[in-house]
Every structure is written in structure tokens, then in C-alpha cells.
Amino acid sequence: MDTVKLTDEPVADQDEEGLFGEIDLVTTADIEVPQSLIDQVIGQEQAVEVIRKAAIQRRHVMMIGTPGTGKSMLAKAMSELLPKEEMQDILVYPNSDDNNNPLIRTVPSGRGKEIVGAHKMDARKRAQWRNMLMLMIVFGIIGYALISGMLLMGIIAVAFIFLAFRTMMPRDDVMVPKLLVSTSKDAKAPFIDATGSQAGALLGDVRHDPFQSGGLETPSHDRVEAGAIHRSHKGVLFIDEINTLTPHSQQNLLTALQEGEFPITGQSERSSGAMVRTEPVPCRFVMIAAGNLDAMQGMHPALRSRIRGYGYEVYMKETIDDTPKNREKFIRFIAQEVKNDGKIPPFDRSAISEVIREARRRSNRKGHLTLKLRDLGGLVRVAGDIARGEGAEVTTAQHVIAAKETARSVEDQISDEYIRRSRDYDLTIVSGTAIGKVNGLAVMGSDSGSVLPIVAEVTPAQGASGTVIATGLLKEIAQESIKNVSAILKKFTGKDIRNIDIHVQFIGTYQGVEGDSASVSVATAVISAIEGIPVRQDVAMTGSLSVRGDVLPIGGVTYKIEAAAKAGIKQVFIPASNLGDVLIENRYKSMIEIIPVSHIEEILERALVPENREGFLVKLRKLAEHAVQPQKSQSQTEPGVA
Ligand SMILES: Nc1ncnc2c1ncn2[C@@H]1O[C@H](COP(=O)(O)OP(=O)(O)OP(=O)(O)O)[C@@H](O)[C@H]1O
Questions:
Q1: pTM of the model as a whole
Q2: Looking at residue 622, what is its pLDDT?
């Protein structure tokens, strides 16, 4: 069993040669940033290929993946790639036969404004003519009244005429069509983001009219509003988190996709707009639906089937291999973010190295770089802002390191706060020994670790046979993993656990425990409780456990080790197969010793207090020797034991 020495050399120095390979640059200003959006996409080659194909054929696409991996960027890029089409303006006209069924007309791009302008001009002329006529009549009456001395009668007649003109003559703007969707001739295909839209914003709406009579009403065609599906006519309609749309909206969206046109009606039942329904309005858009895996479950099956039948589904990658070619792309990514921001100074080689190191760290996987580039872009911008604030010409590694401190996730900040609180109340003890208590490790959110104390207690069985009772906010996999621990207990304690109930408590699990990475800690805590051997509290551990006691890899190892170091833990046991994933910050390296392990026995040997463990270890070895003979047949039955 080895402990791991991590050097304290700044990474920029360690890596710089290998990191930049053939690339000759002083700062990111030397890197050329591609013009088109699709060429700016990093690491999602498969998605890029799908988008290119789908654009040529005008197919729909569903992109599933983690937020910030470039889904909306690809959707925008698709609108740039769509084959050039004649754009159309959409107009809505009053219908003299049925006021509640406004008419829809499409005209070539740019004509819509001209038509509405011409109608308005006409209406203005008619209004001027009418006003002139009214003035002439009024002056005539006043003149006659003055001559004939019937002034009072004259005033009454003028008022009557005025009212008659206002209420009985049709209003001139009533016949002016409304420009529902306006496009310009040279514009690219529209890109409309309808994420989180209510039914009205998505499918169009007709506004309510509080004055529905007496000449004060607004004509129904004037109250019609286009929806995102209409505004994206001949372009791209992007909907992220598609599962958040109501089933009713999804059903209507499906109809719009199938028909290529969709009438607009008032979406609120109580509004006067609900009585209005236009002729079908064209909406031939390409839909890009996006979301994480949950989105697929919440999606209307018919809508999903429509996309599958007439388009592509693509899964967004979360990491890419850490190869020279991919690192080159990452350098270009930093250059892109700097250029797109426009205000921050370029990054020098040391700053680039630091960002790439962070990309490795955030990938949570050995030999990989993260593709959650929105977050990484955030780090680039914060580092740039710090450099700019200092008036620096270039952004350096120091600025990136400072940015990492500033741009910490809320989970990370909460985790610190939790560590402080648990110290105040002695919830997490990082020194001395205790029976049945182990410092486990957990991940909060996606990038923050925390120490998770686990306590076990053994009592005589209440029922016919012993049970394992776990408390704390445990999700399904965590519950399952605890059941599996009983197989280990039989093997490692040699005791018949039918006569005992084992209680396991996860302390302070406000966020809930997912996954089975606490199973080594549970096993150690329970063995300690059953055997009455104290566990060192200055150690922490993480790892999944096979029913045979092998320690299996887990996620988030870097963040877990950092959390243990922050809490004051001196040694941490991690699965040996996770060793390559460890990319902890330099400042933690001298604070903690990392011990890779392959089997629970290695943990027990180290974590149980030496004075008390010898008898147990001798027994353990004997049990292991016994187990060698029948191991083959036993291993086939073990997985069923829980
Ligand atoms: N693959 C990528 N290549 C280059 N830049 C990227 C990539 N992914 C994300 N980015 C950067 O992150 C920003 C945000 O990404 P984007 O909005 O496309 O993510 P998303 O997957 O749509 O996330 P969400 O689902 O939360 O909307 C982009 O504008 C871009 O600057």
C-alpha cells in the first residue's frame, strides 16, 4: 500500500512544455478565432456533424446533456447554417364577414412594412377628409346660428354632429392590417429561444379587450400576437428543458410541427381573446429540443417520436480526452471567450495552463478535460475582470487562481459554512478515536465535497432475523449499497448477523446521499461497532464496495479529498483506481496524505486503532484463509445475500 506524494511545483511549470506542444504563442491574442459559430464549438464533434446534416435537410434535433455544454450555441449555429430561403412577412387582416376570424396573408420579406405603411397613410387621409368635412359642417352651423340668433341651438347641433362623427362613422384604423411577423431581406434564418415560454408566448395569443363595445373596442385582428412558433417560421425554434412545457403546449407544438401552420387564439379562457381564432398562421420551423435526461421522461411521447422519426437525437459529451489536439482546442476556447467578452485582457501561457488544469480537475476523470464550458468560460471572465481591475496588460496564472477563489459555486461556499458549523458543534471530529463512527466523504452539487460522518450501532434483533436500518436522507442507490454491506460483514466478522439489528446513521445529510460511495465507510463503521474496535477520527474514506470487499471507483474524488483537507483530516483512503483522477489544488497537498486502496482489508488495517485491532486482524486473516478454498462456489451465491 503506497501513499501518494504530490509535488508542490506550480502546474504551469510542470506542464507547460507538454501542454502547449507545437503551439507557438505568447498570449491568446495570437490565436485566430473562427468567424462562424459552428466552428467555435469545442469537443462536440458528433453534435456538430448532426447539426450540419440536420441543417441541410431541415430536420429536427433533440440534444440531451448537462447544462453549459453548448446546446443553445449549437442551435444558434444551426440557424446560420440553414439553406437560404425566401423569408416571409406575416400580416393579419380584419375579416368583415366574421370579426372573430381574422385573415392571415404572407408576403415577401420587407413588403409587410410597406403594406401596413400604405394602409396607415390611406387611413390618415380618410381621417383628414372626415375631419375637414366635420369642421365645415360645424362652421356652417355656427355661422347660421350667429346670423339667426339661435346660439344655444347651434351649440347643441354642433355637439350632436361631433358625437355622430365619433360614434357612427367607422374608425379609419380599423381596416389597417397588423404586421405579425416581420423579416428583413438579407437577414439570416431566425433563431428563437422559447425556453420556459408560457402557452401564449409559444403558440401566439389574442389580447383581452376591456372595452368590447361603444366604438371604444380594439379590433380583434389588432389584438393578435404571434407566438415563438410563428416568429421562427423558416428558422430555428430552440426549446431548452422541453419537459417544463405543459402537456397541452407540447400537444399543440406537435400539431404545429405536423401541419406547418397553427391558428392563433386567446390562451386564457376568461379573456375576450378566447373568442378570436385566426386563419392558420404559417410556422415551418426546425425544432431543436434540449434538456437533461429527465427531459426525455417528461416529454410528450408523440412529440419525441416525431423528432426521432423526422430528425436526430444527440447526447452531448461531458468530457474529452486530454490530448495535445484537444488542448489546442481549449486554448482556442479561451481565446474565443476573451474575444467575445471584448473587455478582458488576453491570457498568457501561465494563465492558459491554469485554466486547462482547472478543466482537467473539473472533468473528474483521469486523462480528460471538462466540456462544461459555460462554467469554465465564467472562470475565464472572472480572471480577466480581476486582471482588468488591476490594470494588467495580460491575464496571468495568479489572476486565474484568484478567480477560482472568487468564482466558487454556492455548494462549495455552503460546504465551507457546514464545515465551520460542524466544528462549532463537534459534529465532525477529526482527532482521537471512536467506536462505530467513521468520517465518510460526499459530493454536493457537481463540484463541492463535504465530510459526511457516519455512525453505526448494533443492538439485539427485534424481529425473527436481524435487519440493517439506515437513517439520513438516503436515495435508492445509497440504500442498496448498505444492504450489500451485510455480505461483507458476514465475511469479515464471521458473526451470524441474524441475531442483531444494525443501525447506520448518516449525520447532516441535508442534500441527501446519492450513489454508493459511502459503502466503505458504512462497512468500516459497522465492523467497528460489531467488534468494538475504535476507528481513528483523523482519517476519512470514500469508495464503493463489492460484495467481496474490493474497493471500487467513485466520482468526485478530487472534491472529496479537498473537503477532507479543509476539515482537518490527516489521511484519506480512496479507491486505487481513482488515483489518476486526483487533481487537488496545490494548497491542499501538504495538508493531507492520500492512500489508495484496493480492498477493505487495507482500510481496516490502517483505520482501526492499532492497540485493539490485532486480534481482529488475525481473525480476519484466518477467515480469509478459510475462504480461499470454497471461494469459487461461494462467490456465486454471495451477490444474493443482502
Ligand atoms: N462546446 C462548446 N464550445 C465552445 N463554447 C462553449 C461550448 N459549450 C459551452 N460553451 C460556452 O458556454 C456558453 C453557454 O453554453 P450554452 O448556452 O450553449 O450551453 P447549454 O448547453 O445550452 O446550457 P443550458 O442547457 O443551460 O442552456 C456558450 O455561449 C459558450 O461561450
A1: 0.74
A2: 65
